[in-house]
Write a structure and sequence with these properties.
The protein is of the alpha+beta class. It has two domains: 159 residues, Sandwich (Jelly Rolls), CATH 2.60.120.10; 141 residues, Homeodomain-like (Arc Repressor Mutant, subunit A), CATH 1.10.10.60. 43% of the residues lie in helices and 20% in strands. It has a seven-stranded antiparallel β-sheet with strand order 1-3-4-11-6-9-12, sandwiched between helices. Strands 2-5-10-7-8 form a five-stranded antiparallel β-sheet, with no helix packed on it. It starts with 13 loop residues before the first helix and ends with a helix.
Length: 345
């Protein structure tokens, strides 16, 4: 079914080589028992067949698993040459990013070999079969179908008639690949911080989830790409006012873009256009500014245990460097200067 020749010899980007969940994931699994491995992976994804390519092969399966809302991240390897037949995924979309070794895919009877430097997207309704080499390791993103398609419907402004039909391949040095890898790194960094200091705040988790969904929808070609690029109607300040009031009232909560669509009463594309016309920013940029204001208020009236890092994370800022830049741009001083002034430092 699959060629043994590695079809893509692209060098793995240095920033991907070090990406891993093993030291931060909430769930870890190791096994050499085929039935145990098949059962565990089946519960994570779907029922499937799992067969060793070599009769004398021995599994050395290692899996680290982490959820970010409706998107699950998995770092996994089988440790032996295996063939997998998953059939139709049905309940989820799948992005597979090889980190080492080689893999082969059959998507609805169309075959392709790939490895580091190239990644794949699988749709829920396309039958999937795979080959993993013994040294193959992948980062796998599982997008819950119901949540992802609700997000898509909010963006296009109408119910979907079927699943989103994505192009099956992208390069990891493409815009999507580079940004997706950066976001995976951000999720891992937040999980690492959470492992040391508590759970990732819920609104931050929602932000990361929405970003991962948006990257896939807007950067990977699919059958709705042209529709998403169409012009939208002119600006109407009423939806902008409603959404602005909603964001002010709910900035402390996880914000779902689908909720904004309900509040606005217009499709997400139209809402973005109206925000740009009326306020000069997107809804999420306005939310960022509102949350920056809340961080400043927290730092300006500190408790004894208040610190910049925790205040930033409490309000959904996962990248402290970008947070500090945005804060200084908005207020003309650093967060530490705000906190230090209140403490007389």
């Amino acid at each position: 079914m699959f060629s043994a020749q590695h079809a893509n010899a692209a060098v793995i980007p240095p920033n991907l080589a070090d990406v891993g969940l093993a030291d931060v994931a909430g769930r870890r699994f190791m096994s050499s028992d085929r039935d145990e491995v098949r059962g565990y992976v089946g519960r994570m994804y779907c029922d499937h067949s799992l067969d060793l390519v070599n009769a004398d092969g021995r599994l050395d399966t290692r899996i680290a698993h982490l959820r970010c809302g409706g998107v699950a991240l998995t770092d996994m390897s089988y440790g032996a040459d295996v063939m997998i037949d998953a059939g139709r995924l049905e309940d989820f979309y799948l992005v597979q990013i090889p980190v080492a070794g080689r893999s082969g895919l059959s998507l609805g009877g169309k075959h392709g070999d790939y490895g580091p430097g190239r990644a794949s997207v699988q749709n829920p309704q396309v039958p999937l079969a795979m080959y993993w080499s013994g040294d193959c390791r992948k980062l796998v993103l599982r997008y819950d179908r119901a949540g992802f398609e609700r997000f898509v419907e909010a963006c296009v402004g109408r119910p979907l008639r079927g699943c989103v039909d994505f192009e099956p391949w992208f390069d990891t040095d493409s815009r999507l690949g580079a940004l997706l890898i950066q976001q995976v790194q951000a999720v891992i960094a937040m999980a690492r911080h959470g492992a040391a200091g508590g759970a990732v705040p819920a609104l931050l988790e929602r932000h990361l989830e929405t970003t991962l969904m948006g990257m896939l929808l807007f950067l990977q070609p699919h059958d709705l790409t042209a529709q998403l690029a169409q012009r939208v109607p002119g600006a109407d300040p009423a939806p902008v006012r409603r959404v602005r009031e909603y964001l002010e009232a709910h900035a402390h909560e996880p914000i779902d873009l689908a909720d904004l669509v309900t509040v606005a009463g217009v499709p997400l594309r139209t809402l973005h256009h109206q925000f740009r016309h009326v306020l000069g920013v997107s809804p999420m940029q306005l939310l960022r500014d509102i949350r920056l204001d809340r961080v400043r208020a927290e730092l300006a009236s500190p408790h004894e245990t208040t610190n910049v890092t925790q205040a930033a994370m409490n309000w959904g800022f996962e990248h402290l460097g970008r947070f500090a830049v945005a804060y200084r741009h908005r207020f003309g001083e650093t967060p530490r200067e705000t906190l230090g002034r209140q403490r007389g430092v």
